[in-house]
Design goal:
It contains 14 helices and 14 strands. By secondary structure, it is of the alpha+beta class. The chain folds into three domains: 171 residues, Reverse transcriptase/Diguanylate cyclase domain (Alpha-Beta Plaits, 2-Layer Sandwich); 53 residues, DNA polymerase, domain 1 (Orthogonal Bundle), CATH 1.10.150; 113 residues, 2-Layer Sandwich (Dna Ligase, domain 1). The radius of gyration is 24 Å and the shape is globular.
């Protein structure tokens, strides 16, 4: 006998950052709100539904959002406040299940195959969660209910905002086959164009091509496409794991040469160190320097020293030295820099492995 299908929820807060701003400032309600810093380098973090009517979307350059919606109210993001609200949302989730996989501050997967409550169904559980979010936090969320994660994520978008949609196991084909292939996770504009060259526009047409042909054309990704076209996704909900890296980064108003980055690296090292101190009982072994060039090329350089940094100053010193491992021409300009501490492990694990690192050294990535 095959195992009973899972019951998976994907809960997605509606225009989360913008909705928090509108909740906390009544003068913003009903107005097009764009959460972003103003300026040529800024991007939109979130847009209220009133702003979305004008075509404003997350990750859009802020200057374009301003052109699309001149009446928009720009609000600088307050991530500490959003994180605090997100924690309260997750407390509501935890009343129903311990199997919670956060994807970001505003969305998560929940496995509610078995729950802590006596609610009769996954649909009822989703309703109870959304009701609690509305009553306790004065915010709205949308939910998708399905036998697996990828279908639940598609379903949560189906009746946004403030709605929910269920795909039962016997309804998978009827729901999935007419969908455009662009609705499948991982199928972006480039892959959509490649599939269009094969005459594939819908999930049903994708399924008709068969696994062997898709694998021959797209390798392992072809096999995954075949699985998705059949509604298959065996990935379990993975509860949140401890952070493996703490980092901070910044985008400059004007591109800078490599030798002008030191003050920014030291400032970001201070921020990273402050975040690291909020990880009690965990030790970081690797220093990471991240750079983005003016043409959007991303580089990382890392070093695992014999002794982990003991202060923000030591972290900054190592990060600054990592610039010597950047082998691009001196004329190269950089639009972003980041400093991170990676390889976080429990302190007792690090103590046990200390002999492995006693000889020092490190690597660059």
């Amino acid at each position: 006998m095959s195992p009973a299908p899972r019951k998976i929820l994907h809960v997605d807060m509606d225009a989360f950052y913008a909705s928090v701003e509108q909740r906390d400032d009544p003068s913003l309600r009903g107005r097009p709100v764009v959460v972003a810093w103003r300026g040529a380098r800024s991007v939109v973090c979130a847009a209220s539904y009133e702003a979305r009517v004008f075509g404003v979307r997350s990750a859009m350059p802020a200057v374009r959002a301003e052109r699309l919606c001149p009446e928009a109210v720009f609000v600088p993001p307050d991530f500490m406040r959003y994180k605090a609200v997100s924690r309260r949302v997750r407390e509501i989730f935890a009343r129903h299940t311990d199997l919670i996989e956060p994807l970001s501050l505003d969305e998560a997967y929940l496995d509610v195959t078995t729950t802590k409550t006596d609610l009769p169904s996954a649909t009822a559980t989703a309703e109870a969660i959304r009701d609690a979010i509305r009553d306790e936090l004065q915010l709205t969320a949308s939910a998708g209910i399905a036998p697996n994660k990828f279908l639940a994520k598609i379903a949560s978008d189906w009746r946004k905002p403030d709605g929910q949609f269920v795909i039962r196991p016997h309804q998978v084909d009827a729901f999935l086959l007419p969908l455009p292939v662009g609705r499948l996770p991982g199928v972006g504009k480039v892959m959509e164009a490649k599939l269009a060259e094969l005459g594939i526009a819908t999930v049903g047409e994708l399924r008709a091509h068969g696994q062997r042909e898709l694998e021959q054309r797209f390798g392992r990704w072809g096999r995954r496409l075949h699985e998705l076209s059949h509604g298959l996704d065996d990935h379990p909900v993975q509860p949140e794991r401890p952070s493996l890296q703490v980092s901070a980064e910044d985008t400059f108003e004007h591109d800078l040469p490599l030798d002008a980055l030191e003050p920014h690296i030291r400032r970001l090292a201070d921020k990273t160190w402050a975040g690291y101190r909020r990880e009690p009982g965990r030790l970081a072994r690797t220093v990471v320097l991240k750079l983005k060039t003016s043409d959007f090329r991303i580089l990382t350089r890392s070093l695992t020293p014999a002794r982990p940094p003991a202060s923000a100053e030591e972290l900054a010193d190592v990060a600054c030295r990592l610039r010597s491992r950047v082998e691009l021409p001196a004329r190269t300009r950089y639009r972003l820099v980041g400093v991170g501490l990676g390889g976080l492990v429990a302190a007792d694990v690090d103590d046990a492995q200390a002999p492995l690192f006693a000889s020092g050294g490190g690597g660059a990535a």
